[in-house]
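Troubleshooting: if your tokenizer reports a length mismatch, compare your output against this known-good record of 206 residues.
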Amino acid sequence: MTQSSPIRDIVSTVREFEGAEPGTVDARLALRLGELRTERGWSLDELSRRSGVSRSTLSRLERGELSPAASLLGRLCTVYERTMSRLLMEVEAEPPQLVPAARQPVWRDEASGFVRRSVSPPHTGLRAEVIEGTLDAGSAIAYENAPVPGVEQHVWVLEGTVEITVDGTVHTLHSGDCLRFRLRGPSRFHCPGPEQVRYALMIVLP
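Known-good structure output:
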């Protein structure tokens, strides 16, 4: 019986990769599993020995012909010294570089006069997002807690005036001013007027 080699195996995988639709999570997972094996210089036979998974099953996985069950994926994660969440994050689609204005989600709270545009939407592959907020004169929005303790925020006022309360301190920002802080508790945004305020908010996960 001829022993397989890592190079021959990966070439075979690329040529015969036809089970999963290109660009899908299953397809990216299949390619990533093949990359992890070849990065270590292992043949399919060697990986089979280390994981206890048959060579034919591993071959089908790397070709995208088989979606792994959680238990099977868990075995491979152990061999590759990765948590399952880390492996799945590695195969997330790359975030689009361009986010056209027409595709930026907009949410309106008519009761508070608050409009929130997600200029750069959150993505698992990125740590930051950018929001444009508009608040009518006399309106206020309050948040009981930080979405993630210690999250970093930068508020840059584009037009108007806003009062931002963080850690019990009220900061008054005018057009062009920027406030930056780490949020660990409640916060409040208030537009004293006489005009509405428009600001850019950058959120960076810790």
